[in-house]
User: Fold these one by one.
Assistant:
Number 1:
Amino acid sequence: MRFKDWLIPNTRGQQAGMFLAGAAAPFTFQRTLMPRGVFDQAAASGIIMAFEYAVGALVQDSIEAIAVRIIKNREDCDELEEKTLRHCSMLIDMVAIGFAFQVKKLFRQRDGELVGISWARTVGDHIDDGALAGLSVALFQEIADKFNIPVFRIFPPALPGGLVAAVIMDTRRRRAERAGDPEHLQRMEKLTAILMSPLIAFSLAGVAVIERTLAGTVSKLFGRIFREHERIWRPLGHASTVTGIGFLTRFLVKLVYDHMEEVNSKIEPAFDEPPVSPLVSGGPGSLIPWESLSLQGRRYVSTYIRMKWLERVMGEPAKAEPIRVFSALNSGMTDEERVDVAIRELERTGAFDRPLLIVMSPTGTGYVNCIVAETAEYLTNGNMASIALQYSKRPSAMSLDKVPEGVDYCRLFLKTLNSRLEKLDPEERPRVVLFGESLGAWTSQDAFEDEGTDGLLEARIGRALWIGTPHAAKWKEQVLGPPRPDVDKSLVGVFDNFEEIELMAPEKRNKLRYVMITHHNDPVARFGLDLLVRRPDWLGDPEKRPLSVPKTEFYKPFTTFILTLIDMKNSEHVIPGQLEANGHDYRGDLPQFVREVFDLPCTDWRLDFIRKALREYEVARREWIDNAENHDDENSIPEEYELLMRDVEGEGEMQV
C-alpha cells in the first residue's frame, strides 16, 4: 500500500465519514452541565467525531454495496465504472434521505414512547446524516470532474472547515454566555481551542487509518472467498472492526477493574492499625476482620466522632460513643453470609440498644458520606449507630454491573433486620432510617421496586434521605410517576436545595418522610442510555430550564450522551473544608437535610456550630491521610486531631 493511501481517504464512504466528522466538531464545544477542561474537550471532540466518521463510512459503504448489486456487474467488478457507481449511489442517497425523513416524521418523539420507536427514529437520523454526507461528497466529485479540481476528488474540505467553524462558533458562544450567564462560562481559552483542533484532526486521522485498514482487509478477504466485488463486503468489514475493538476494550476494562479493586483493598499508612474502640468494625472483638474492610471501610470506622469532640461542639456531656459497622464485601462469600455477620456485628456492638440506627448504602467504592454520619453523631450526641453495606470496590461509574447485586444485598439485609427488630419490644426498638448516595441511592431505592412507599413502611424504614439518585433508578420513577395504590405521594419529595423545603406549607413539610436531593445540574441524575436515542426532559424549552442548566445546550443523539458522560466525571470536584452544593457534590446542604429528614432537632445556631466542626474535621482528616507516611505515630487517629477540635475564648465558638 502506498504511503498516501494510508493518509488520504480513498473511498466515498471514508470521505463521507470525514465530512460528518468535520461537521460534528462545532457541536462538541457547546456548554453543558459542567465545565470541561482542555483534555476533556479533546476527548469529547475526538470520540464524537470518530463516531460520526464511523456512521458516514458505514452508511455510505452500505449504499454503495446496494448500488453494485443494482448495476448487476458482478462478473466483471474490477471494470465497474466509478462514474456509473457514483451516479447510482447518489440516487440511492436521495432515496435514503427521503426514507429517513419519513421515519423521523412518523416516529417523532412523544412522551412515554416505546424504546423501539426511539431507536427507529435515531437510526433514521443516522441514515439521513450518512446519506447526506455521501451525496455531498459525490457532488464534490461531480464538480471536480466538470471543472478539473483534483483535490475535491480525494478530500472534501468538510473536516478542516468544520474545525475552523468549531473555533469560530465556540468563540461566539463564549461571548454570548459571558454577556448572559457569566457564572457558568466554560473555562477554555480561544488559543487552547485553536491549538487543540489540529490535534483532534490528527487523532481522528489515526483512528480512520486503523479502521480503514482493518475493514478493508476483511472486505477484500470475503470478496476473494465469494468472488464478488469487495465493496459489497465493506459494511461487514466495518462491523467486524467494531466488534474486534469491542472485545479488546472489554479485555482492557477488565484489567482496569482488577487494578482498581486491588487498590481499594490496600491498607493506607494513615489507617495501618485497627481502631481501639470495640464499638466499630475492625476493633477489639469485631466479627469483621480489619483487613477485609477495604480502603473506604477502614476510613469510615476509624473516623467516628470522639466523645471529647461531641462535648466541645454540642456544649454538653456526650451521651455515648457512636457505633459504626461496615458490612464488607469480603466479610462473607454470599449475601446470606454477609448479612448474618452484619446482624451479629450490630448485636455485638449494642446497636439495637441505641435510639437511632442509620442504614447506609455507599457509593461504588464503598465510600460513606462523612458529612451525614458526623452530623447525625453530633445531633444525637453520640447516642446512635450506623451500618454501611458495601457491594463493590470500584468507582460508581464503573460499578453499574454491580447494581443488581447491590439491590439484592440491600433488600436481604433490610428484610433480615426487620425480622430481628420484630423480636424486640416496640418501645425498645431503634428508629431505623435509610441513607444512600449516588449508586448507593439506586441500590437502596430499588430494594423496594414495585413496593412504593408501602414497602418502606412495612420494612420499618421511618425516614430516608437519598442524594444524587442516578437516572436509571426504577423506584424513583415509580413513586414520582402516575398515581399508584402502593405510593403515598405526600411522603415523598425531590428537592434541588433546602430552600425549597423551607418554602413548603407547614402541613406538607411535616408529612415528608422519604426525600431525594437532586441538583438540576447533577449529570449523574441526568445520564442514562436513553440519551442515545431520546431528548431528555431537562433539555426541553430553554426558557423553562433551571438556571443551572444551560439554555444554549441542545440535544443531539450520541453527542449529548458523550458530553453528559464527561460531565459525570467532572461533577464532583470536592475541596476539603469547602462544603458545596453543586453538581454531584451535596455536602453544602446535607447538615440541614439530615436534621430535617431524620428528625434530629437542634437550633440553627447549634447547626452552624456543627457545620464549622465538619469543615475543620474534613480538612484535618484529608491532611492526615495525605501526610501519614511522614508520621511516626502508631495510632491510626493521632492526637493532633483532638487538638484541632478546640474551643476559643469568649462564647466558646470553634476556631476554623
Number 2:
Amino acid sequence: MSVHGPDTRSASTRAAGGVRSVLLALGWAWLATLASSFPAQAAPPPHLHVEVAPNPVGTNERLSVSVVIEGENVSDARVAAFPLIDGLRRLGGASNSESTSIVFGTGGARTTGTRTIGYNFLPERVGDVTIPALEVTVGGKTYRTEPQVVHVVANSANPRRPGARSRTSDPFDSIFQDPFGNGRARTGAVDVPDMTIRRTLSRGDVYLGEPVRLTVELWVGPGDGHIEQAGPVSGTDRTGFWVENLKVDSRATGRTQEQGGQVYTVFTVSQQLLYATEPGTMALPIETWRVVYRPSVLSLLSPAQEIFAKSAETQIQVEPLPAVGRPAGFSGLVGRFQVRSELDRRESKVGDAVTWKVTLEGQGNLRTAGELSLPEPDGFEVFSSKANDDVHATDRGLAGRRVSEQVLIPGSAGKLTVPPLAIAFFDPDARAYRFAEAAGHEVEVSGGVDGAATAVVTPLPATGAARPVQQATDIRYIRPAPQRLTPEKPWTSSPVFWAVAVGAPLGNGIAWARRRRRLAQGRDPVAARRRLALTRFEKSLRAIEGEGPDALARLAAALIAFLGDRYGIPSVELTAARIRERADEWRLPSASIEELVQVLAEIDAARFGGARGGVAEARERMLALARALAEGGR
C-alpha cells in the first residue's frame, strides 16, 4: 500500500516531464498516420505446424501434441476432428491459447496472431506411432498439417536409477548444495522411483460362472518421498464380466516386498470379483494409473512428479460348463448350495392361503444365475408373492441366500402334497453337477366347496361381522373387511405439520439474526480463524520436542498449517517462485517474503545436514517470522 503526499518536485522538473509527454504523444500519432498510409495487401495464408513433446516418449509419460497456427485472423482456427490413433489414448479435452502482435513493414501494418490447440495422450505400446495429417479450418478455408512420427519406448524415455535426481531451475539450486559432496542441488532434486502396476488372479483358468479375484497393486521402488494421489486413467473396462468390487482400506500402509534384489513398497489399490458372462479367452487390457509423487514432506520447494504406472495385459481362460450330465431345467447356478422348503401351516381350508417359502443359500453366482425353477403343486392355485436376494461379496466369491415365497390356494378338500425340491447346480471343485434337495410337505385341507363351483351370490347379514363370500371362482377373500371404517384426519391437523410449518421459518430467522450479529461484531469464521492462526501455531511449536529430521518435519507441518489458516495458502503452492509471484495476491507483507522463502529452504536443506542451531533455534526463527507475518499482513 502506498501513501501519496504533496508534489515537491521543482517547476523545471515538472515542465520537462510535460514536454516529454507531448513529444511521446506526437510520436505515436505520426506512427499511426504512417501505418494508415501504407497500401493494404492481401493476407498471406497461415502457417501451420505440429509440435510433439517429448519425442521419444516413454509408456509411463504424458505426450503433448500441439497444433500451432500462425497468421492473420487465426482466432477462428479449429481442428476438424482429432482422429483415433492406435497406440495413443487421449486424456481429457483440447486446450486453447492465443497471442497477437502488430507488425510494421513496407506493405503496411498488420496484426498477426498465434493460436495453439493442445492435446494430451498416454502411450499404450512400444514402437513408432504416426500422427496423421490433421485438417485445420482457418477463415473458412481448410489446411492440412504434415504427419508426425512419435517414437515410444518402454517406461521412460529418460530412465534414471532409483533415487536419481533431476535438476530444476529453482534459484536455490546454487545456494544449498548436498553436504555429502555429490554436488546435487537439494531444492531442485526429485526422487523418481520405479513404479509399476501388477495384477494377480486367484485363478487363470475357470468355469463359466466361477469367480476370479483380481488384485491390483502399485509397486514403488526405493525412494524417500511419498505418494500424494493415485487413480486409474485407462484399462479398467471389464467388458465380458460381471464385476463385484471388494472393499480396500485406503488408509492401509504398504507392505515390503523384495524382488530381483530390490526392495519395493507394495500398495493394494483395488480388488474385484469377476464373473465371466461368456466362455473363451478373456483379455483384461493394460491398466494405467496416474500417480502424483512428491520427494518428501520437507521438500516444500520441489515440484511434484506425475508418473503413469502401467500393468501388463492379463488373460483369463473361461471354460464352458460341461454338456454331459447337465440336468434338465438347469438355471446356471455355479458353486455349492443348500435349499430349505417351509410352509407357514400344515392344515387349511378350501380357499384359505398357504405360504410356501423356499430358501436357497450358499456360495456361488446367485446374482448372475437365472430364476429358480420350482415345481407346481397339484391341487393348488399358485400365486407368486415375492422374491429377494441377500447376497454379499467375499474374498472367495458371492455368498448369501435367495428367498422365494409363493401363495398356494387349495382348490379341494383332502390331503394335498407340496412336492420335494431338487435344484441343480455345478460344483467347480468336483467338476460335476450336484443337487440341493429338500423334502416335500402334506397339507390337510378341510371344508369349503369344490373349486369348480359356479358363482354364488349370498346376501350379507344385517348386523355383525362381515364374512367372506365367494362371488366367483376368480375372486377369493383372504380376510374379512372391518365392521366400520374411521375417516382419516386431515394432515393439517397434525402437530408435526404445525411444528415444521412454524419451526422452520422461525429457525431460519434466528440463524439469520445470529449471523448478522456475528458479522456486526466481527466474528466471521474466516476472520476468526485468521486471528487464531498465530495462537494455534505457538501452541503447536510448544508441543514439539526432541531433535532430528522428525522434529523438523513437525515444525514444517506447523508452519504450513499457519500459512493455510492465516492466508489460505495451499501446501502445493509453497515454492520459491509461487511465493514471490503471488505475494501481493496472498497479502503477504513485503518485508517478510524473503525471510519466509529462506526459512522454508533451510528446513528443506536440514533433512540432510540438520538445522542451523538445532531445532530450538529453528523454532525461534519460525515463531519470529510468524509474528512478523501476523503483524504485517493485511
Number 3:
Amino acid sequence: MDVLALRESLARLAGNHRWTWVPAMRRLWARLDGGTLDRHPTLIIADVATSDLEALLSEDETMALVADELTYLDELFVDGATDPQFAYFSPEFGISDAIPQYSGGLGILAGDHLKAASDIGLPLVGVGLFYRQGFFRQAIAGGQQAESYPTVTPESLGAEATGITVHVPLPGREVAAQVWRMSVGRTQLLLLDTDVAENSDTDRAITDRLYGGDRLHRLKQEILLGVGGTRALSAMGWNVPVYHLNEGHAGFLVLELIDRAIDGSDLSTAIDKVRKSLVFTTHTPVPAGIDRFDRKMILPYLELWATRWGVPAAALWELGADATDVKDRFNMAAFALRLASSANGVSKLHGEVSRRLFAGIGIGDDITSITNGVHARTWVSEDTQSVFDRILGAGWENGESEAWDRVDSLSDSAVASLRHIGALNLAQLVSDRTGQVLDPDALIVGFARRFATYKRSTLLFQHPERLASMLTDNNRPVHFVFAGKAHPADAAGKELLASIVEFSHSAAANGRFTFIPDYSITIAQAMYEGSDIWLNTPIRPREASGTSGEKSALNGGLNCSILDGWWAEMYDGRNGWAIATSDAPDPVLRDRDESEATLDVLDMILAEYHEDPAGFVGRIRHAWKSLGPGVTAARMINDYRRQIYMPALSRAR
C-alpha cells in the first residue's frame, strides 16, 4: 500500500462510523489530529500531512489495524444491502463528539440503538434531522453558563449526499429538504436538511439548531422529521413495514402514512391500517415532559391534511387532544398512543408510572417496558475492554451471563489496577480542562447529567456543614467531579449549575469539588472510567431510566442512587447503594431528608473504600457479575426485536 492508497483507505474508514466503538481507531484518529479527537476523521484525513502517512506505512501494528477494519467493513455487506424493515425516528442521535447532533440522554440512547442494531444485523434505519448549528457548546463566564453554536456542514461530519430532495407541505407552501446519509456500521442514518436554495431564509433555518427557537419552530421541525422522514425512506426506494417513534417528536409521520392508506377509504379505516405499523417508546414519567402544541398554532397544519382527505380538522385534533388537565393542547404522546399498536416505557418502574400517567388514552393501559441499555464497546474504556476480552472472552459486550460469570477470575490486584488507571486518566482530564488537581487515591464521586431541577444536582448542599466536613477529611479523602449542561431556556437549571460552579471555587470545597465545563461524550467516557462512585439523586419516580449509571457500572464504578429508573429493578443490596427516599409530603422537607440520607450513605462508602479495600473490590466484582448481563444495548436491542419489532412486523404484513 502506498500513501495515496492509505489516504483512500483511511477516508473510507472515516466515512463509516463503526470507528466510534473501536478504541484503537479512535486512538489513531486522535494521534493524527495532534492528540485529541475534536474533529471528525473526515477532516483529519483531508489535512493530514503526507509525511505522517508515510510514517504509518512503516508501522506493522497500525497497518494491520487498518487492514482488519477494512476487511470488517467488507464483511458487513458481504450478502449485499438489505432493505430496512424497521425505521427508528428520533430528533437527535448521539454517535460521537465529532458529530454534534445530540443534546443528552435521548440522543445518546438513539446512537447506541443504531450501533447495537448494526452489531446484530437488525435491518433498521435511523431517521433524524441535520442541524447546521447542532446543540450548543458550553462555557462558564462569570460563574454562569454561556452558549455558543458553531456551524457545521454535513460533509464535514462524514455524511454522504444521497441526491434526494423531499418536499413537505406547510401552510401556504412546501418546504424542501435534502437527504443526507451516514453509515453507522451496517446501519444507515438518514438526516433531513432544509438549508437549500429553493427555500426561503425562514425555512432554510428550520433545521438550524437542535431544540432551538420557539414552539412554532419546534412544530415545523417535528413535521419535517415525521412527514419528511417518511417520504425520504420512500425516495430511497424502501418500503418500510414498521415505524418506531423514539418519543413523540416524530409523531407526525402518521399523517404521511394515513395519506397513503386513505385511498378510497374513510379515516378510521386508514388509521386501522397504519396502526399495525407503528410502535412508540415514551421517555417521560411526568406530564410536564410531554410535547404539546397550542390549538391555535397547530390547527392550520392539521387543516392541510384534513382538507386533502375531505374530513373535518376536528377529527385530527381529537387524535391528539390532551386528556389531562391541560386543555386546548395537542399532546404528542396521546397522539402516538391513540395510533400505535404497541408502546413501552424504558424501565420496569417507568412502565408502571406510564400506565398510570396515560391511563385511558389509546393503548396507555397496555404500555409495557424495555429497560434501556448502553453500547458496551462505545462506553467501556480501552484498558477495561482489553482485560474483559482476555479474561471474560467473547460475549461480555452482548450481556452474556456466562462471560460475566468469569469476572471471578479477575484478581483483586487486577481490578484495583484497572480502577487506578481510570482514576489517573480522569485526573489528567480534570487538570487539562480545569487546572485542578485530583488525587487518584481519593474516593472519586461522579455526577454528570442534564441540569434539570428534578435531577437535584445541588441536593448535597442541603447540609453544607456535613459536606464541608467530608471534603476536608484528610484521613478519608473524597473528590466530587460534576459535569453537565442546562437547557438554554431553563432558567432554574442554569441557577443550579451556577451554584455548583460557585461552590467548586469556594473555600468549603477544599479543592476537592470540580465542575468540568462543556460536557461531552469524551468527558463522559473519562468520568465513567475514573469514578469510583456514580451519584444519582433524582426525585423518584421522575427518572424514566437513566443510563449514565449503567455506563459507569460497566467500567467498574459503583452506583449510589435513589431507587429510580433502571436502578430500581437491578439493585440487589450489594452491587451498589440505595439512597432512602422520604415520605415527607413537603418538597423542602423531602429534599432535606434525602440529602441527609445521601450523605449517610456516602459516609458508609468512604469507610469501606478507605478501610476495607478488599471488600470494595469484591463489591465491584459482584456488580459486574450481577449488572453486566442487564445493562448492555445488545440485551436491549434483542428485547426490542423479540417483544416489539417482530410482532409489529407480523401485524404489518
Number 4:
Amino acid sequence: MSLQPSPSTPRDDLKERVRDAVDITDVVGSYIALRRQGKAMVGLCPWHEDSRPSFQVNQERQTYRCWVCDIGGDVFNFLMRMEKVEFREALEQLADRAGITIPKGRGGLAADDKAALWKALSWAADRFHDCLRSHPEAGPARAYLADRGLTPATIERFRLGFAPQSWDWLLRQAAVSGISATDLLRTGLAVERQGRSGHYDRFRGRVMFPIRDPQGRCVAFGGRVLPGPDADPAKYINSPETPLFSKSSMLYGLDTAREAMTQSRRAIVVEGYTDCLAARQAGIDDVVAVLGTALGERHAKLLRRYADRIVLVLDGDDAGRRRANEILDVLLAEPIDVRIARMPAGVDPCEFVLGQGRAAFEALVDNAGDPLEYRMDEALAALAPDAGDDAALASIESVLKALAAVSPRSPLSPSQRRLREDQVLGRLSRRFGLSRDVLRGRMLELRSSSASADEASPATPRPLPRLPAWDREVIEVLVGVPDSAGLIVREVGAAGLESREARAVLQAAERLHGEGRPVALPDLLLEIDDPALQSLLVAVDETSAERGPIDPHERINHLEDALRRRSAERQAHASARTLKTSRLDSRSEAELLERLVAERRAAQGMADPKDG
C-alpha cells in the first residue's frame, strides 16, 4: 500500500469543514453502543470478536482506536472501514449529515445539480398529493386507500398522491412551473420516447408513494396500479436508479422511523408500502418497507445504525418463504440479531394490523423465530418422505451453509452462539442419523472456505510497525506539540528519519507546514490516505497520552537538546574518521582530538569544562 497521499486529494478546507461539523462519537454511536469510561467513550469493536470493550473513541481528539486490532483513525477512516467505501463517498455521507453542500468540480453530481433534482421531486410530490385530494380521476385511488384502511391523517402525513392516466399530465404542469423536462428525466419521472423526440410521464394511473432519504428529502416514488380488469400487470413500479436514489440502499419510511428505531433498538421490515403505513397508523413507528427488492447487505448496514435487531415480517405464502431463503445468508453474515415473523396464510401485514390490532401484531413480532430454526424447518419440510440421499444431503448442506454464514460479530456472546450451533446440529443429527462431529466439521469447512474467498478486509488486524526510538520521539513530539512542526521540518526533515513510515508522516507535515496549514493530529489524518499510517498516528498519540500531560515547552526543549546531541555525535564521527584516515601534524592532531572530546561530551549531554 502506498505511503504517499493521493495526488488527486483536494487541498482546501472542505474536508476540514466536514470534519469540524460532525462529532465522531455521534457517527460511531450510530453503529455501536458506546458508554463513557473516564474521558473516553468505549464499546465493543465491530471488527473482531470482542467481549470486553476494546474500542475507544477520543472525543477531544476526534479519533478512534481498537487496542486489540491496532486500528485507529478519524471519522472519515471509521466510515470508510464500516461501509467499505472510498474517501469520496465517506466525505459525501458526512457532508450530507452535517448539511454541507459539496461545490462543483468535485466529481459526481454537483451540489446545485442535486438541489435542482430535489426541487423537481419535491414539486412532483406536491402535485401528486394535490391530485389525490381533488382531481376528478382520483376517486378510485381514494377508494382504494380507504379500502386498505388508511385514514386521511395517514394519507396526509405520508403525502400519498395519485398520477392520472394522461401520458403527459406531469410534463405539462412542469412546463408552466419552471421545472425542466431534463430534470424530470434525470429524476426518473419522465421517459424519453423511442423513435421520436419528446418525453412522457413514467407514472400514469397509479397511487403514488413518495420515497424519502434518511434526511427526509424526496428522492424517488413508488407507484401502485389501481385494481381492475384492465390493470397493468406490473402491480408496483419504482423510480429507476438515479444520482439520488438506489433501491438497494434505501428503505421506505426510514426518515420517520429512525428515532423510534433508536429508542426500541428494533427495526421491523415489511414488504409493501401499505403494510408499513398500516403499522405506522396503529402506532408502531419502527417499521420500514423494502422497495421492490430483497432486503440486502446494504439495507442491513443501514439499519445497524439505528437498531440491534431486524425483524423480517413475511407473507405466509410460498413467495414469502422463498424470499426469506433468498436473503437469510446475507442477513446472517451481518453483525445484527435477525428474526423471522410469519403471517398467517393468505394474510398480509396490512390486513393483519387493521383486522387484529396493534397488540396482536406486536405479539407476532415479539415471537419472531430464530432464522436458523426457520431455515432448518423449511429444509426439512421440503423433503419428501421418500427423498433420496442427494436430496437429504442438499437439505443438510443448506442448513450448514446458513450456520456457517453467521457473523462472528453477532450480538450473541460466543457461548450463546455455540449453544445455538449445538441445538441446530443436534436436530440435524437426530433427523439424519449423522454424528455431530461430522456435521460440525462440514460447517467449519464451509465457514473456512467462505472466509478465504473474501478479500482481505481493511479491518483485518495487523501489527503496527515498531518505529526506531528516534523516529518515534520525533513523531510523538510532532503529534503532541503541533507548534513544534516548524522546528522538526527545519532541523530534522524526512531524510533524518530511518523508517519509511516516519518519513511519510514527516513529508505530510512538511506539505502542511509549507502551505501554511495547521500541523496537528486531525490535520495529519486528513493529509495521509494510508489507513496503516493513520492507525500508527493514533496509536502514538494514545500511548503518549497514557504517560500523562506534557509541558509543550519542556518537550520542545528536550527535542532541541536531542537534536544538538545528535548533531554533535555526527560531528564526532566525522572527526574520528579524520583522525584515522588523515595525516596531520602534531598540532592539528591535538586540536582535532580536543574537538573530538568536546563533541563526545556534547553528544552525551555533558557540559564543556571550559564553559564552567
